[in-house]
Specification:
With 562 residues, the chain is of the alpha/beta class. Helix content is 24%, strand content 15%. The protein has an 8-stranded parallel β-sheet with strand order 11-10-9-5-2-1-13-12. α5 runs parallel beside α6. The structure holds 1-deoxynojirimycin (NOJ). The site of 1-deoxynojirimycin has 9 residues, from loops.
Length: 562
Amino acid sequence: MTSPDTAERPFALTSRPGAEWWCSAVIYQIYPRSFADSSGDGIGDLPGVTAHLDDLVDLGVDAIWLSPFQRSPQKDAGYDVADYCDVDPLFGTLADFDVMLAEAHGRGIRIIVDLVPNHSSDQHEWFQAALAAAPGSRERARYLFRDGKGTAGELPPNNWESVFGGPAWTRLVEADGTLGQWYLHLFDASQPDFDWSNEDVRELFRGVLRFWLDRGVDGFRVDVAHGLIKAAGLPDYTPPVEADSMGGDEPDVPYWGQPGVHDVYRDWHGILAAYDGDRALCAEAWRPTPDETALWVRSDEMHQAFNFPYLTTGWDAAELRAVIDESLRAFAAVGAPSTWVLSNHDVIRHASRLALTAENPQGHGIGPDSVGKPIADLGLRRARAATAVMLALPGSAYIYQGEELGLPEVVDLPDTARQDPTWFRTAGERYGRDGCRVPVPWSSSQPAYGFSATGESWLPQPSSWARLARDVQESDPESTLALYRTLLAERRSHALGTGALEWVDGFPDDVLAFRNGNVTVIANLGDASIPLPHGNVIAASEPLVGGILPADTAVWLEAAQA
Ligand code: NOJ
């Protein structure tokens, strides 16, 4: 099957088994509402993306992942989809999408879009029909409606908790005012879970995949890819006290990682394979280990799975070496590349996370009253070094908008500005994820730092971001932007994404050193400087002087040519 825009793509549309683009691509995550606002309403949009494509070419990325822009009441920033096959007016129109796609393809940039199959919005026509229909109806069978427990059904069907806090069940008030059945929502009450044992649901999503593939997208990032199937009988489950909020730490959860989920992706694999080029599926599957994550990328399933065990590893050389080793082994065992990632719209930005002064469970966020706030300069230094390590690893890598500017987590957002449902569902106990979603600063002297011509911004940008604006960094050879450009260009010219890793020993325990082709990477995670080995420095996360590699610094050295 071909797509309407094939003529405009400068890249091959033939399949390249073993050398597919997604094996080694650097994919830039755009969170549309915070990227660039062309309409002036304070919320980024698709024409805003189109307007900045040249900046992404200049940065050197291969592809873009767009977080949701489909029709949605925006109760969870678009992860509550009311119509999977239309663009929300906040972000533009389908025509704007087509223009953006063609313009991206014309520049050699591929586009993958977010797909949210675990749940819909409560405004989706199917959920509205389910509300209007009787218990036991075909309409209700597409979601997980159950009678309550207790003498009058007053207790929820089981004890599951929502990822965003509070119970995972909400009871219906029927049209006549009586209390009715309960429905399951692993996230917000406005995000009812589909019942994936229902063939209607499976068929709906086959159609959604084809709708976007027909338009020419290069693939999908699949939301909550570990959650679609729930254990039979919906047994009670009590999470450990220290549970990770996205399920990452917990081994046997009746709603995460159920074996039946893989049949869904085998089905989807076949749908993508019928299209020209190499279209890809990337799993957002929070699993505790690389081995379990790799189950999503077996050869007949998805193509990529975010390496969250890597993302959640601290700034520790031994732990990083172990997770890199385990990842390369586990993914290679199923014939897949590893997909490295350090930041996204759900986690504390790594320029802050790597210098937190206390534990912070994933999804809780940081705010004015948090214990263990980050040390800003140290965080940025470590983040630059961490990125230099990540971009030298073989496989694909995702970068999140704004990390190329060294943006930190915004810690001091006013409570009145917060929008993450986590904040509301925990009555302010967890700050949630707004701090990593603050709109991008493009220009230091413009209103909203160039994010929006009117100066509107759906979350306030800190005044300290004037010095982080892209235009300030453009001309500074030591800026984080300059570092990312260098790393991406050298990664490409040395083909690191398709290379192989070999550890280099002989350094202190807190140093990570490896070779990929003719590039040697040395990252000093310790407190003391070490002598810098000989070699041609092709990239360094900090300026190097005096023949030493300072603390929290990484360098790429090129072996001398024979
Ligand atoms: C994971 C998404 O990345 C997150 O932003 C969203 O809130 C949940 N899934 C629910 O869709």
